Amino acid sequence: MSRDVSSIEDAAIVYVVDDDASVRAALEDLLASVALEAMLFGSTRDFLDARKPDRPACLVLDVRMPGQSGMEFHRQMVRYGTAIPVIFVTGHGDIAMSVSAMKAGAIEFLAKPFANQDLLDAIHRGIEIDRQRRFSNRKSRDLTRRFAELTEGEQAVMFLVVQGLLNKQIAGQLGVSEITVKVRRRQVMLKMGARSLPDLVRLCDALPLKGVGAV
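Given the sequence above, the corresponding structure tokens read:
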């Protein structure tokens, strides 16, 4: 199957959880018609137990199923921080249920029978949301790694630099020479990949750390 992606890591996958085998088969055919790979599950338990690839994804989830309902499962996903975008499909929905699902973070709530294009539009939107989330997470991990490569002295200098202190002021506050501050400052810029002071401030603000800036 041809894909409009540069590598398998970029290839999206759509998870479908619905207890109706005929619905699962129909959705698999629909997704295949637009070159989207699907993994199909008859229950939320089957979905949880399955090994899933580390790729952009979204979840098409039936609302009412035997055992754990789709709504209950979505609330569980939210509690545990599972970030896969969710599209609800149901033959038994109402406005209150739709509002509840959307408030909980679902990206779409479609009543059966729904137009195929409406579902595909929602799926493509969900996949794009997940791509952006994964990209942001990669950037955050890379920034954290670069910060961790700084020595404690370099970190201390960085926090004071982004507060606008001059080298002489930093030297006095840290009890080191001004030359030492200049050397550490240069290393900070190199290791963090900052091209300018405003760039370093932006990177420091983006660090996903608690208490950043405390020296």
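Residues 140 and 208 are 7 Å apart (CA to CA). Try to locate this feature in the token string yourself.
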